């Protein structure tokens, strides 16, 4: 029995005959041939796998930012955003110029306003996360920012008219529980066990500021991820990345001028290396995430983002000496089980989504 379709959202262009489709490198004949054959597990879940891969690079980027904040003199959040997104913008423009992608700066007609919204909201999502890392551990910040899947799924349902099943909601709630068990934020558990040893403890006021920064990041990410899904395959992933990096560069530059923030110059090779790592990891992560979200619904796609917590636990152990507790292991098991359930559910119910 077929399920009734949700009413179309004005943000999603359903007629793709008169616009460029950047969603596949294959010909339409190949696509037709493929639809007559059963898809492999990897092909059927390509979007989810790309999102999971991106989370490793996001976790690596956050660890790099945390290490950068521990150096002297500290680098302001806006300067980190400026340097990272400048690198991303240059990489995007070089890639599109070499490969001959049309409209490398302005982007395709018909989606430029949505691209602009993605760029501006993405700035607040990124800067909020970086700011919070000055006062919170990576685990605590990740826990708070992972409110984003819940708010994004709701936004996708309201603005994009996407379905959001009860089973997806339950899986998301269990995943969020797993995130909390791994991060063990002090404001919930009344303990500092989740903060890496050897890092300076933040004062209550600073910690509250870090929590507020995470909330700004949640709202920014919600707008960014919803915009990416609304754009869909009407723009190349590099177009989305270009707008994001360009507006982050513009806004962070203006912010440094308006608030008279001094520029911190390199004082060691480690300073330069960490900034380069932030830029490169961020570029790779954002590219993979954009490609993944273009292939997945918002509500399902953001579920794969919970994998970042697993990567954070491993990397914090390596760099800060944090040993996962039994609660962390339990949380990891819950996250993996929930993600696997969502992936297998799609494989059973929608084998022809790539037609």
From TrEMBL:
Q: Keyword set for this entry?
A: Membrane, Transmembrane, Transmembrane helix
**Keyword set includes Transmembrane:** yes
Q: What Pfam family is a match, any one?
A: EamA
Q: Where in the cell is it found?
A: Membrane
- Mind telling me which GO cellular component terms the entry cites? membrane
Keyword flag Manganese: no
Membrane topology, as annotated, equals: Multi-pass membrane protein
* InterPro entries, sorted: EamA_dom, EmrE-like
Source organism, top-level taxon? Eukaryota
Q: Principal place where this protein is found?
A: membrane
Q: Where does the chain cross the membrane?
A: 46-65, 77-98, 110-131, 143-160, 169-188, 208-228, 240-263, 269-289, 301-320, 326-344
Q: Which residue range or ranges hold the EamA domain?
A: 46-183, 210-343
Name of protein: Drug/metabolite transporter superfamily
